[in-house]
Design goal:
Strand content: 15-25%
Radius of gyration: 18 Å
CATH class of one domain: Alpha Beta
CATH architecture of one domain: 3-Layer(aba) Sandwich
Order of helices and strands: EHEHEHEEHEEHEHH
Number of strands: 8
Helix content: 25-40%
Structural class: alpha/beta
Largest sheet: 6 strands, mixed
Strand order of the largest sheet: 2-1-3-4-6-7
Distance between the termini: 51 Å
Shape: elongated
CATH topology of one domain: Rossmann fold
Length: 211
């Protein structure tokens, strides 16, 4: 089965977009907000979002009838939203990657494929963990693309409250990220343990910041 047109939503160039082209898919890419008019004009019938920075309108999702997926570098429902690898170490939450259907709530759609990822804590940094997670989600996508195309996949709802973070939330941690994205994740985990960080603790911290 081959879709008439696949729309790949990303913040820029993507190795997965290049891969889809290489295997002969009819795919185009954009980083701009899309509308239902765009979908109709270009005959889009499947949407892949990966690193895209805009919310997708419900009218677009309605047109695609469940054929819109997102790749996210966390083990959902943990760490929806921004900087999931950072918050997984700060909050000591499960780590991994997820491919899920897109609905009208950010990173909250039914899960299609998911993989837990382990790290060598002594040697990893935020940068290397970020790169590893992207490698894992890209492999998960490639390994399962055929089944995704033909709809031969299961799905299940996200269970539990999980966690969610905005980009501005990490501003609370600037003093901790002494080496920026080269900060050791060991330092983050030790900080988490010393301060008895938990998902509820982080939630209270963010609520205090926003109030």
């Amino acid at each position: 089965m081959k879709f008439n047109k696949i729309l790949f939503l990303s913040n820029g160039e993507s190795v997965l977009f290049d891969w889809l082209l290489d295997i002969g898919e009819d795919v185009q890419i954009t980083s701009f907000p899309i509308t239902s008019e765009y979908i109709n004009i270009h005959g889009i019938d499947f949407l892949v979002s990966y690193g895209y920075r805009h919310l997708i309108a419900q009218e677009v999702l309605d047109l695609l009838s469940g054929k819109a997926i997102n790749l996210h570098i966390s083990l959902l429902p943990w760490n929806r939203g921004a900087d999931p690898n950072l918050w997984s170490f700060i909050g000591n939450t499960p780590k991994g990657v997820t491919i899920h259907y897109i609905n009208n709530t950010l990173d909250a759609g039914d899960i299609i494929f998911q993989k837990e990822v382990e790290f060598e804590i002594e040697s990893e940094t935020l940068r290397t963990s970020y790169e590893k997670l992207h490698q894992e989600v890209q492999k998960l996508f490639k390994d399962n693309w055929h089944n995704l195309k033909i709809g031969k996949n299961s799905k299940f709802p996200q269970i539990g409250e999980g966690s969610f973070h905005k980009s501005i939330d990490k501003d609370l941690l600037n003093g901790l990220l002494v080496k920026g994205w080269d900060t050791s994740v060991r330092n983050l985990e030790e900080f988490s343990a010393e301060n008895e960080f938990s998902s509820q603790f982080i939630k209270n911290l963010l609520n205090t910041h926003l109030s």
